[in-house]
Each structure stands twice: as structure tokens, then as C-alpha cells.
Amino acid sequence: MDNSVKNIKAEKADKRKKILKNIVVYGFLGAWGLMVLFPFYWMVLTSFKSYASYNGEKIPRFYVTDPTFSNFTNAFSQVPLGRYLLNTFIFTIVTTTVMVVVVTLAAFAFSRLEFKGKNLLFTIFLSMMMIPSELIVITNFVTITNADMRNTFSGLILPSVMSVFYVYLLRENFSQVPDQLYYAAKVDGTSDLKYLLRVMLPICRPTVVTIIILKVIECWNSYVWPRLITDDKNYFLVSNGIQEIRQNGFGRENIPAMMAAVVVISLPLIILFLIFRRQIMAGVSRGGSKG
Amino acid sequence: MIEKNNIKAWLYLLPALAFMLLFLVYPLVDVFIYSVEEGYNFVSQRSSGLGLYNFSYVLHDTYFLQAVKNTFIMVIITVPISTGFALLIALALNSIRKLRELFQTIYFLPYVTNTLAVGLVFMVLFKKTAYSDGLVNLLITFFGGESVDFIDGPYWAKMFVMCFYIIWVVLPFKVLLLTSALASVDKMYYNAAKVDGTGSFRVFVRITLPMISPTIFYLVITGFIGAFKEYSDAVALFGTDLNAAGMNTIVGYVYDMLYGDSGGYPSFASAAAIVLFVIVLTITCINLLVSKEHVYYA
User: Fold this and answer.
1) B125 and A39 in contact by Cβ < 8 A?
2) Where do the domains of chain B lie, and which CATH numbers do they carry?
3) pTM to 2 decimals?
4) A268: domain range?
5) Residue A175 and residue A266 in one domain
6) Contact B259 A228 (CB under 8 A)
7) How many C-beta atoms lie closer than 10 Å to residue B107's C-beta?
8) Which of A32, A101, A108, A166 to mutate to test the interface with B (most CBs of B within 10 A)?
9) Number of cross-chain residue pairs from A and B with Cβ atoms under 8 Å apart
10) Per-residue pLDDT, A289
């Protein structure tokens, strides 16, 4: 009798403890969630405020009274935001495409073909992963400048198409494809290239998708190399474009229009992320860096 | 078994090798040559001799010393805080079921955003203008504090925003890795501890921490390397003239020497880049040595 009362009391205390723990945990997670989302909320909010109402608010409002699209039209008409977006789009697609071809061919050679010095060469490849980009960017800058490729797409793209790490990632995956498939294909008279395209790539699709996604994110956000190699606005990518808008932007400190530009620049990757959420997060945890 | 198709293999490798030699191997050798060429002229591409003057110039340059100081402060503040905080978030995420995916998605957002662009939002939030003190300062004064310009104001205020922004940017990656590390710890260990009636703190120190120590260690190493290469986040907040803002970083110094208003000195840039490389290498080696004693590989 006495014991069962005690048990009920203990259970109640346990339950209370659990609820308290939940409040703390969810409160903490929610607070940081707000911290992450707030800048996004603020940029969207500000982008819909008119210039006059934004500057009229001594204490900024958390809502819009008279939403306006004029900031977005200004961002495309007063500064060449469309041009920046187009450039970044071209740069991203071409760089990623060329990179996938280069990396796939190399990974195939390392995993499937036999040649003298393969292991030595692969070791040299791997050791290249440790080279920090800061060391090599200096000579690349001089090379591209001397080749008269400043302010061209080739100057932007060529030094960015090779990635030792992705060769490594893809080779690991290629090596897991059973040898029997290769011999079977050989018996059928399939050429190596056909085997690579018809068998290897479809089997290793997740890895290829991972590489493509990581490269697209990297290209879209790249800043240092484009800044070094372009000073003609016609060849700016979005990162340099937004920096240009900040410094000489709309002729005056027009924060709402600037925020509209930021929204437009951020949106493509956010949409991409929301669509490919699982692949992107799995890919980054396998092969991402930054941080 | 397989015929030795030498030529074919080299053909497959050709594009990769060509790009690697031209844009990776040759530059790597060249940067060391640049760094010892004294008085290198970018236009005539000639130098007056070989020596270590470039290093001595860089190491005595006040801008470089300021950059080194800034970078070290950023590293010392952001690496431990971001790693610890990420661990806290990952533990919290791991202990819940409802809304977990939602939180994970939200927390990952900064990873896919353009740091240059979102940095502007931080600038707007923290900056004082003629019209308004900015949201953060209004909050500070609301709670009885003194408002301060975080973007053009005192050094510590600028450093605070800088570190805050860096942590905001690097956290998604760390949270993601730690969450998957925590999820992959075998439940068997926890069940055994439960049977023994072990306290939750002891379980954390004795089971969880050792099991995820390889991930923590990986994050600390990459965190150090990443933080030492800090640059674009600073540009995002303070603009391209980081020397004027007193917020330059070592990488920023390298690029300023190479290009821009103060640029045209690839030799000084190379010397500074090599100094950075030596610093990063030293720290990474220390990390590796420390980890040998503390990391548990199952």
C-alpha cells in the first residue's frame, strides 16, 4: 500500500522531469532556429519596404504596411543584377559540366584501367588534396593575366574545373562496382567508354549527384577567384556583384533595394536546397567542408 | 587478366593531368620561387635577386601583423565556441523526435547561402545609420545598455560581429556531422549503461564522447584550417578595404598584396601565403599529436 503510493509519486516526478526537460530542449532548439531564420526574415521583410518607409522608421517595424515590388524592379533596372545572375548561371553550369567529365574520366582510369605507375600517380594525386588554395592562387592569377584571359569566361572557369578530392570520392565508389560486370561487358564487346557511361555512372549515380551539388554550391558562392580575375562589371558573378552594389550601388544608401538584390541572389540555392534536401545533406556530410 | 591498355588509360587521365599540372603543380612550385625573388616587377617580370627580403618585409609590415592578430583572435574564439555549441545542438536534436527534421533543415540553411549576400543583412542589423541605430542597438538600449556601432565602431565590437557571423556560417556543417555521429552510436552501449544505472552525465563522458571523438577531432582540425583562412565573411561585413577597417585577415592580406589598390606584389603575397601555410601546418600537426592520445577509434 505504502509502496504503491510511493511509486505513483515517483512516476509523477519522473513525468514532471520529462516535461521540464522537453521545455528546455525545445526552447533551446527553437531559440537557435529563430537566430538562424531571423536574418532571412529580415532581408525578405526589408526588401518589401519602400525606400521612404524604411528610412522613416526610427524603430524598424517587424511587418510591412505597404508592401512594394519596386525594390525588385530597381534591383534589375538600376544595377545589372540580371547580368550578374546570368554570368553566375553560365559559370556554374559550364564549370560543373566540364568538371564532371574530367573527374569521371580520371576516376575511371584509376579504378578500372591498368597502367604503369598507377599507384604512384594516385598517391601524388592524393597528396595534392592537402595543398591550400591560397598558395596556388597567386601563380594562377599571374598565368591568367599573362594569357590575356582576365575578364573572360575561360579565365574564370579553367582553373576551377579540376578537383582532386572529387576524383578520389568517385574512384572509391567506382572501385565498389563488381569486376564481373566489367568482364561480362568485355565479353559482349562493349568498349570501355560505353561501359563507363552505361554501367558505371548509373550505378554510382548518388556519388555523381553529390559531386554535382557540392560543385554547384561552391560555384554559386565563389568570390575570391572571380574577384581577382574580373574588374569589368560585365563579367561579375553574384558575389562580386553584391559587393559592387554595396559600394556604388543605387547612387544612395538604398537598403531595401540592396536587400531585394540579396533575396534574388539567395533564392536559387535555397530553392535547390529545399528540393534536394536529403541529397545535399547526405552529400555534404560525406564530402563537404567549409567550417 | 585485363590487358595493359597503357595509352588508353593515359588518354582518360589526360584532361585531369593537364589541368592539375597547369593550375596546381606548377603554381605550387612557382609560389616558392616568387617568395624568394626580391624586388619582383609585375610589368617587366624581372627580379633584382634572390633572398629572404620578402619574408622580412611581410613580417615587419604592420598591416600583416594586424592581420595575424585578427586571424588568431577569430580562430581562438570561433573554433571552440562553434564546436561546443554544435555539440550542444546535436545532443538536443538527438534527444527529440518531433520536429527534428524541421530543425535540421532550418539549421542547415546558412550552408547554402551566399556569405557575401547574407553578410549584408548582418551589416544592416548591426550598423548604426543617420536614420536608425539598427535593430541590435535598439535591443541593447531597450535593455538599458549603451548603443555601439558594430560595423564602424570600436575594435571589440567589430570583432564581436565578425565572430558571431563566422559561427553562424560554420555551424550547419558541424551540427550536421555531429548529429549523424551521435545517431550512429550503437544503442547497445546505452542499454548496458541503463542496466547498470549509470547517471546521464557519466554516460555522456564515458560513452558518447569517446564514441564520437573521431568526428569531434575531424571538426576541430578542419575548423582550425577553415578559420585560419577566414576572408570572405570579413569582406561581407566590412567591405573590400579591410585594412582601413582594421579587420583584415592573413588571406585578405595575401589578396590585397596581389590585386586591387595596394596590389601588384606577387612576391610579398607569396611570402605571406607561405607564412600562413606554415602556421596552419604547425597547428594541424599539434592537433594530430594531441588527438593521438584522446581520440578513440572503435
Assistant:
1) yes
2) 1-51 (no CATH), 61-294 (1.10.3720.10)
3) 0.92
4) 79-287
5) yes
6) yes
7) 25
8) A32
9) 263
10) 56
The three cell numbers of residue B257 are 598584396
Q: By the CB < 8 Å criterion, does A177 face chain B?
A: no
The Cα–Cα gap between A71 and A54 comes to: 12
A117: left (phi over 0), alpha (psi -120 to 50) or beta: left
Task: Please report, in tens digits, the pLDDT of each residue of chain B (298 residues total).
Answer: 455 568 888 999 999 999 999 999 999 999 999 899 887 776 667 777 788 899 999 999 999 999 999 999 999 999 999 999 999 999 999 988 889 999 999 999 999 999 999 999 999 999 887 777 788 888 888 888 888 888 888 999 999 999 999 999 999 999 999 999 999 888 888 888 888 888 888 888 888 999 999 999 999 999 999 999 999 999 999 988 899 899 999 999 999 998 877 778 888 999 999 999 999 999 999 998 988 887 877 5
Nearest to B19 by CA among A169, A141, A162, A94: A162
Interface mutation target, options B17, B116, B140, B182, chain A, most CBs of A under 10 Å: B116
Domain count, chain A: 2
Residues of chain A where predicted confidence (pLDDT) is lower than 70: 1-3, 251-252, 288-291
Helices of type H across A176-232: 179-187, 192-195, 201-203, 205-221, 224-229
Distance CA B16, CA B163 (A): 38
User: How buried is A163 (Cβ within 10 angstroms: 0-12 exposed, 13-18 middle, 19+ buried)?
Assistant: buried
Tell me the C-alpha distance between B75 and B80, whole Å: 8
Q: What is the pLDDT of residue B28?
A: 93
Check whether residue A57 and residue A195 sit in a common domain.
Answer: no
Contacts of B53 (CB under 8 A, 6+ apart): B38, B39
| Residues of chain B positioned with their CB less than 8 A from the CB of A243 | 116, 235, 239-240
Using CA of residue A264, residue A266, residue A267, residue A272, what is the dihedral sign? positive
A175 touches chain B (CB under 8 A): no
Decide if A257 contacts A78 (C-beta within 8 A). yes
Cell digits of residue B213: 571523438
Q: What is the ipTM of this complex?
A: 0.90
- From A5's Cα to the closest Cα of chain B, the distance in A is 23
DSSP-H helix ranges across chain B: 6-20, 26-36, 53-60, 62-94, 100-108, 115-126, 135-142, 155-183, 187-196, 200-203, 209-228, 232-238, 242-245, 250-258, 266-294
Length of chain B counted residue by residue: 298
Q: Are residues A122 and A208 in the same domain?
A: yes
